[in-house]
Amino acid sequence: MISEKEANTELPADVESCHELIRELYSLIENMGDDVKHLKQKLHNQLGFRFGRSSEKLSPGQIALFAQELNELLRKTAPEKQQEEELAEGSRSGKAKRKEKNGGGGRKPLPSTLARERKDYYPEEGLLNCGECGNQKTEFGKVVVEQLDCVPASFKVIEHVTHKFCCISCQEGVVEGKKPPSILSGGKPTEGVIARISTAKWADHQPLYRQEQIYAREGVEISRSSMGRWLDVSGEEANPIVARMNELILEGEVIQADEIPVIFIDKERPVKKGKQGYAWTYYGDKQHPYVIYDFQPDRCADRPKEFLKDYSGLLLTDGYGGYDWYAREKCANCNVHLRRYLEKAEKYDKRKAGLALAIFQELYKIESRIEKLPPEEIVRIRQEQSRPLMEKLKELLLEWRASTPPKTSLGTAINYGLPRWDKLCRFLDHACLKMDTNLVENSVRPIALGRKNWMQIGSEGALATASVHASLINTCKRVGVNPFLYMRDILIRLAHGDSAIDELLPDRWVWVCKNPLN
User: Fold this and answer.
1) Distance (Å, whole) CA 197 – CA 199
2) Are 277 and 463 in contact (CB under 8 A)?
3) Which residue, of 401, 436, 471, is where some domain finishes?
C-alpha cells in the first residue's frame, strides 16, 4: 500500500530526468549494500574474536587452492630455495638422529642445582650372611630413584641483636656490634620479603590484596599499603639499574616498541576514579636483551619521543601513528598485522585473501630456514627469495584496491598495507629486523594478563615504581634468570652500597649470583 507521502511525490516527466533519478537511486542502493556488507563483516569479526579460534595457521587444503599460482611465482628462486631447503633438511635430519638416539621421549632428569637429601636403604642385618656358606655378603650394586618433593614457602623472623661493651671500671670506651645495612632501614621486611612481593605481582600476576590473603594463611599479617610502600622504596633504590638498561637498549641496532592500556587511580579527582594510562614497552636486540616498561598517564607521542630521543637505530612497531615522528627510512612495520587483516578478509573472499595468506606462509618458511644463518646470508636470501614475494603481494593489493570497498575486511587490509609498504619491506634489507613485532607483543602479554588480576595501579606516582619492577622482573624472564633470587640479591647489594651497576644488570648478573651476599 502506497503512503500519502509517496503519492504526493512528484516524479520527473521527461525520460532523461527519469534515467538520472534511476542512476542516483542505483548508486544509493549500491552504497547501502556496501555499508550492509561492511556491518555484517564487522559483526562476524566481533563474534569470531569473542568465540572463534585464535590460531592464525592456514590449513593444507587452503594452501593447495593456490599452489599453482605460488609455484609460478616461486619458480624464479627455485635453485636458491632448493639449496637452502637441503641445508635445512640436513639440520633437521641431524636433530632427528639425536632425538632417535635419546629414545624420542622419557622423563627429564631433575635439575642438579636442587638440594638433595639422601636416604639409604639396606637389607636387614640377618639377611647379610649367606645361607649357603655363611660368609658375609658384599654389596655389588645399587638402584638410585629420585623423587621431587616440595617444602612450602615459609616466613621466619631474624632477630638482629646488637651487643654493647664498655669498661666496667671507668664506664668509658663503649663499643657495639654493627648491624648490616638494609634496603628499608628500620623497617620490618628483609630484601627477601620485598623480592617475593615484587616477583609475585610482576611475574605471577598476584595483586597485593591477594598476597595479603595468602600471607595471612601463613600466619603473617601484612597490609597491602605496607607492601606498596616497600615496593616504592625498593623501586627508588633499583632505579639506577633500569636507567642503565635504558641507556644500553638505545645502543642497539633495532628496538621493537608497543604499548598497552592500563588503569591507574587519579587521586586528584574527588571520587578517585580510574584513569587510562599506557605501558610503553621497548624490546632490545640480542646484544642488549632488555625489556623496558615505561608506564605513563597517556598515549601521547611525546612519551616514546622522549624515551627514544638519543636513539638512531631501526624502530619496529605495529604502525601506530604515535611513532610517525621517527625518521621514516629507519622505521619498520609489522607484517603480522597485515596478515591478521587478511585472515579476517579470507572469511569473505577466499580467493584473494587466501592467495595473500599463502604468500605470507611462504615468506615465513623462508624466515624459518634462514634464522640462524650469518647476517649477510640472511639479507642475500631475503633479496633473492622474499623480495619477489613481497612485490607480488603489493601488485595484488594494487589490483584489488580498485574493485574493493574500503570499509570491507579486504579493503581494510589494503588500506593498512599500501600506505606503509616501504616500512613493511624494511626487513628485506636488514638481517637484524624481524618480519613482525611478535617478540614485543609477547612481552606486552604479561601486563595484559596482570591487569586482569590487579585491575589498576594505585596512583599516578606509582607508575614509576611499576616501571622499575616490571622491567627488572620481565628482563630476568627473558634472559633465563630466577627473578626472585635476582631481586633479593641486588637489593642486598644496593643496601651494602654496591655501585657497580653494570654487574647488577640481569644479563650480567649470572656471574655475580655465584657469590650472593647473605
Assistant:
1) 6
2) yes
3) 436
State phi, psi for 265 to the nearest 5 degrees: -85, 125
From residue 167, give the alpha-carbon distance in Å to each of 161, 164, 173, 178: 20, 11, 6, 19
176 plus 221 within the same structural domain: yes
Domain boundary pick from 404, 436, 468: 436
**219 φ/ψ angles, rounded to the nearest 5 degrees:** 90, 15
Q: Does 343 share its domain with 486?
A: no
End-to-end CA distance of the chain: 92
Residue 98 in domain = no
Is the domain of 269 the same as that of 168?
yes
C-alpha cell at 135: 660368609
Let me know if residue 193 belongs to a domain. yes
The three-class DSSP label of residue 182 is: coil
What the block records as the C-alpha cell of 354 is 587466501
Number of domain units in the chain: 2
Q: Is residue 511 part of a domain?
A: yes
The rounded distance, in Å, linking the Cα atoms of 327 and 318 is 15
Burial of 457 (0-12, 13-18, 19+ CB in 10 A): buried
d(C-alpha 441, C-alpha 260), whole Å? 10
Query: Are the C-beta atoms of residues 414 and 405 closer than 8 Å to each other?
Result: no
Which amino acid, 312?
Answer: S
Q: Are residues 171 and 250 in the same domain?
A: yes
Q: How do the pLDDT tens digits run along the chain, 518 residues long?
A: 445 555 556 777 788 888 888 888 877 777 776 667 667 667 766 666 566 555 556 555 555 555 666 666 666 555 455 555 544 454 455 555 454 455 455 578 888 878 889 999 888 888 888 878 878 888 888 999 888 888 777 888 888 899 988 888 887 788 989 888 888 877 789 999 999 999 999 999 999 999 999 999 988 999 999 999 999 999 999 999 999 999 999 999 999 999 999 999 887 776 667 889 999 999 999 999 999 999 999 999 999 999 999 999 999 999 898 999 999 999 999 999 999 999 888 888 888 888 999 999 999 999 999 999 999 999 999 999 999 999 999 999 999 998 888 888 899 999 999 999 999 999 999 999 999 999 999 999 999 999 888 888 888 889 999 999 999 999 999 999 999 999 999 999 999 998 899 999 999 996 544 444 44
Measure the CA–CA gap between 410 and 408, rounded to whole angstroms. 5
Q: Going by C-beta distance under 8 Å and a sequence separation of 6 or more, which residues neighbour residue 510?
A: 479, 481
**Helix, strand or coil for residue 492?**
helix
